[in-house]
Amino acid sequence: MDKQDILKQERNAAWRKELRDKIKNKERTGFTRVEMPEADPIERSRSYVEVNSGLSAEEAVLEARRCLDCANPTCITGCPVEINIPKFIKNIERGEFLESAKVLKETSALPAVCGRVCPQEKQCEASCFYTQKLKKPAVAIGYLERFAADYERESGNVSVPDVAESKNKKIACIGSGPAGLSFAGDMAKMGYDVTVFEALHQIGGVLKYGIPEFRLPNDVVDVEIENLKKMGVKFETNFIVGKTATFDDLKEEGFEAFFVGSGAGLPRFMGIPGENLVGILSSNEYLTRVNLMEANKEETDTPILKGRRVAVIGGGNTAMDSVRTALRLGAEKAMIIYRRSEEEMPARVEEIKHAKEEGVEFMNLQNPIEYIGDAKGYVRQARVQRMELGEPDASGRRRPVPVEGSEYLLDVDTVVVSVGVSPNPLIPQSVPDLKTTDWSTLVVEEDSLQTSVPLMFAGGDIVRGGATVILAMGDGRKAAKAMDEKLSGVAKSEVAADNK
Amino acid sequence: MNKVVSKEFFSENVVRLEIEAPRIAKARRAGHFVIVRVDEKGERIPLTISGSDVAKGTITLVIQRVGVTSRKLAELEAGDTISDLVGPLGQATEVKKVGTILACGGGVGVAPLLPIVEANKKAGNRVISIIAARSKDLIILEEQIREYSDEVIVMTDDGSYGAKGLITEGMEKVINREKIDEAVIIGPAIMMKFASEVTRKHEIPSIASLNTIMVDGTGMCGACRVTVDGKTKFVCVDGPEFDAHKVDFDEMLMRLGGYKDFEKDANDRYLNQQK
Question: Chain B within 8 Å of A247 (Cβ-Cβ)?
Fold first, then answer.
């Protein structure tokens, strides 16, 4: 039976039919989309409380009623890990919240995380029947996903996915970010003995060091990690594959195959004069100091610059995370400086909205070209140039062009550079046979995500350069499937025919 | 968790810790460093490995008490553990037979210099080492340096031990006396700045090992960036060793001072708590 048949069969379950018959589609499409309850902007901008507070059970059930349980659920194709969306939503509608969480976990190792940080508006919700055909707001799939995952976690009744009989095959997963965790979860389910190696002292990668507490609480991530541990996944922190032990060392220790999900951990700078002044740092450093090292707390030893006038350069989600962190550290003025207009901003609409509500100043169509410091080397001013939009560039967005004679000086005492990341060089450096692109990302086969080295697969930002949590998770799943096929020696065609 | 196996005070403020870390002991080469986080509230700091014992599975770190983290480290006793230790990090020293090496170590910089001296000697080079400090009690690892050097010159600022004067004076003497093929310079940033001016003047290829502020130590944060030959480099992944004549030491000194106020506050707080 192929995937489609299974979906159909499940859709024909008696309880699903019953729900569909209970409320007419016309009535369902008449309900309005639920609003996510949020913490007060002024209060939250000075604390680390989670901004979105999540739906209540009543709100979730009401929203779940909007889903039409389509015969051809296009939403699923919009999801990089292909969550069975109607099935989990219909379980919410009938009040089976724990069952709903179980459905999420069939394909996603981190549902509570995805429910919070996935750009649903560009994925499942963009492919929803409401968006596509009715031109109405999509079913709030993301909010519902979060609801089900949170409900399960808070119930203390967390289900552990079934694990197949042990295959006695040791697999090494390098990096414990979203790609690695997703890979490890799927491999554990298939009965592999997976060890995840993490360079930092905490597990979770970008989910821990990058995404702030007010958007993704660390406790939420930890519960999902605990779940993987219960499935038999082993974790080794403070371990850099290629440095602490080489790939050959690990092979000698019995590891048969490798998945590299080491992330895009090398911050880019703009290369403009004065960029190495004190007070100018990468968003990675800024966020790591707060999120991983908890530098915002008095009792920890790690220092953080608590700027009064903080400029964050860039327009992505990381830039939004940084500028909102600046507010929480007490900034009087927290600014986004972005060289294009708001329309081209890569950040999620929700993040831009939240930042604005909290008082972030958006200085769009502007770009720093130089920093000026004081005698001690602390940054004091940025020389900023105004921009206008010209012809579209390679990314399809209109290219920003400097406006002659528009430069001015802006007072700043902290600058956070958030203009993207490059892949971390540690892994390519330690495996000379590993082929890389001109951008230093790893070259992989598109279908299998296998690198140029046999039995070494890769996914997430080390391949993509800088993408999202969910795309990294999708890669982890894809690599797990391909690795299993290779290790079990099953021909691809047979697997396709026998796919669950 | 890594256990402290033994501890030895070189002087009141300089301590040597031998720490259990079997994988790092085996993998490390001269020039490598580790990142240490002492306890759950601790910060992550880089420390160059000064030696290892593969059979015992231990590495040696030399720490000078200056801030909170180094104080916490110096207070550890044999049997205590540190929360986190990761490495070996950075690019290893490139060691080849070049002839005569002038190895210059200032203060605790002598600790990371030791494995480089050893490796150079073993590669068949003639090694002249100059170890310098403010005063006699700050001269460390003299015996170990002697073991792998053809000649050792000790210098103190106050003349309390060895020759009186700055390391640069000792360097000039040696350079004027015989042909030096390469210099290795490790110590406080200000010492490295002036020592590399000396070798630049005499056109002696020189390597400096930089110890900057770091958080992760794997290229992720960029706190350690320095300008080398007009380009921004990350000490953690591109270094820690660079062509000493191309490093912008003034910028490095400025960046090292970036958290001075915090460090002083944290230190005061810590000392108050200890009272």
Answer: no
**What is the value of pTM for the model shown?**
0.91
Residues sharing a CB contact under 8 Å with residue B199, sequence separation 6 or more, in sequence order: B102, B171, B175, B180, B183, B185, B205, B206, B244, B245
Token pair for A395: 């990314």
Chain A contact set for B266 (CB, 8 A): 301, 303
For A6-151, where are the E strands, in sequence order?
A: none
What is the rounded CA–CA span in Å between residue A99 and residue A335?
Answer: 44
Size of interface A-B (CB pairs under 8 A): 120
Provide the phi-psi class of B66: left if phi over 0, else alpha when psi is between -120 and 50, else beta.
alpha
B115 neighbors B30 (Cβ within 8 angstroms)? yes
Beta carbons of A337 and A400 less than 8 angstroms apart: no
Flag whether residue A238 sits within 8 Å of chain B, measured between CB atoms: yes
Nearest by Cα to B76 from B34, B18, B139, B21 = B18
Is the four-CA dihedral A447, A452, A458, A463 of positive or negative sign?
negative
How does strand B2-9 pair with strand A456-458? unpaired
Q: Give the pLDDT confidence score for residue B199 in this predicted structure.
A: 97
Between residues A150 and A428, which one has the greater pLDDT? Answer: A150
Q: Round to whole Å and give the CA distance between A360 and A291.
A: 20
Q: Which helix (H) or strand (E) holds A411?
A: strand A408-411
User: Is the minimum CB–CB distance between A418 and chain B shorter than 8 Å?
Assistant: no
Query: A278 vs B258: CB contact, 8 Å cut-off?
Result: yes
Average pLDDT, chain B: 93
